[in-house]
Amino acid sequence: MPFEFDVVTLLPKMFDAVTQHGITGRARENNLYYLRTWNPRDYAANRYRTVDDAPYGGGPGMVMMAEPLDRAITDAKIQQTRNGINRTRVIYLSPQGGRLNHEKVLRISKLHGVVLLCGRYEGIDERLIENRVDEEISIGDYVISGGELAAMALIDAVIRQLPGALGDTQSASQDSHVNHLLEYPHYTRPDIYKGKPVPEVLLSGNHEKIERWRLQQSIGRTWLKRPDLLAEKYPEGLPDKEKELLEEFKQSQCLAITDQAKTDTIKEQEQ
Ligand code: 9D3
Questions:
Q1: Do 181 and 106 fall into the same domain?
Q2: Do 74 and 195 belong to one domain?
Q3: Residue 167 resides in a domain
Q4: CATH of the domain at 41
Q5: Is 72 inside a domain boundary?
């Protein structure tokens, strides 16, 4: 049974970006998921199809009215039930939500479907959130113009976890963040680009050495760029093998810096 995304949004066309391109486009063609949009405007009460109104208490901007959203959510849930989707939740993409991360993506991908509520304007009438929303999720501490892009980030991440969405060579379990480390660096042809060679070990054909080097790069780069991830993965400190790899990485970093300093000195002398 395909996973079902039911998206309540004033801007349904934005979701073509997910359904019509790339990995998520292919997954749609293969019926790994359904994505349906529900426009609150179609559930508005008056002939102007009004879905927003001024905030009680005053202040700038407009607030999305509860009733059109309520009816759209109800219809989305009825449709899910008809399709045999019972393990489902209503998620409101909101700056007030808990941050989206890999664990949340995994948890959502184990449901049968979700109703995703996208806000525009200043926000949604609080009573609708209290009555209908199971969970609020944010994608980070910065302002975007509405919930749609956040919903698409969530949808893309969830689709990657659905069985069959990724090819044989890719796999969700290989994704960085599954093992709490950053990825090793990637290189392709040419072997020298603007004077920079590809690391020698990658041309050696020695797969054991390559695998060791890549793990070392993963650990080293995580130590350099995201020490918080390393502390989370190894709260009691690094195991012996990883510690050795990291110490060796630090050494090689020093040499690389010295090396760069020498090159810089030579360049200066040439001028
Ligand atoms: C200028 C409006 N802001 C007042 C300080 C409040 C505000 C309202 C609506 C801020 C953002 C939005 C629209 N954003 C979302 O709906 C949203 C969001 C985000 O802005 N950042 C991170 N995750 C998300 S999820 C939904």
A1: no
A2: no
A3: no
A4: 3.40.1280.10
A5: yes
266 lines ligand 1 (CB under 6 A): no
> How far is Cα 215 from Cα 267, in angstroms, rounded to an integer?
34
pLDDT value for 177:
78
Residues 83 and 132 in one domain: yes
Is 35 within a domain? Answer: yes
| Cα–Cα distance for residue pair 228/250, rounded to 1 Å | 18
Catalytic (active-site) positions? 95, 122, 160, 175
Q: Are 153 and 100 in contact (CB under 8 A)?
A: yes
CB atoms near residue 159 (< 10 Å):
26
Q: Domain of 117?
A: 3-160
Cα 72 from chain centroid? Answer: 26
**Which residue stretches of the chain have pLDDT < 50?**
none
Q: Do 186 and 132 have their domain in common?
A: no
pLDDT tens for 93-144 read: 999 999 999 999 999 999 999 999 999 999 999 999 999 999 999 999 999 9
Ligand 1 mean position, distance from CA 113 (Å): 24
150 lines ligand 1 (CB under 6 A): yes
Q: What's the pLDDT score for residue 200?
A: 98
Same domain, 11 and 62: yes
Q: Would you say residue 209 lies in a domain?
A: yes
CB 12 near ligand 1, within 6 Å: no
- Comparing CA positions, the residue from 36, 132, 128 lying closest to residue 76 is 36
Contact between 179 and 127 under an 8 Å Cβ cutoff? The reply is no
Does the pTM of the predicted model rise above 0.85?
yes
Probe target for ligand 1 pocket from 9, 94, 120, with the most ligand atoms within 8 Å of CB = 94
Cβ–ligand 1 distance for 93 under 6 Å, the answer yes
Ligand 1 atom nearest the C-alpha of 144 is: 20
